[in-house]
Amino acid sequence: MRARRLRTGLKGWGGVGAMAVGCALAVLFALLLPLVRSHGESGGPDAGHGLAHSSATRAAEECADPEKQTLAPSGADGPTIDEIRGREGEKRKLIVGVDQNSYRWGYRDPNSGGDAELEGFDIDLAHRIAEDILGDADAVQFKAIPTNQREPAIQDGRVDMVVRTMTINCARLEKVAFSAPYFRTGQQLLAPKASPITGYDGSLAGRSICTAAGSTALSTLEQDREDGRLAADADLGTTVPNQLDCLVRLQLGEVDAVVTDGALAASQAAQDPTVQLKGDPFTTEYYGVAMKKDADDLVRRVNRILEQWRADRTDGWQSSYDTWLSPTMGDDPARSEPPAPEYLRRS
Question: Which of 194, 215, 329 is nearest to 257 (CA)?
Answer without folding.
Answer: 194
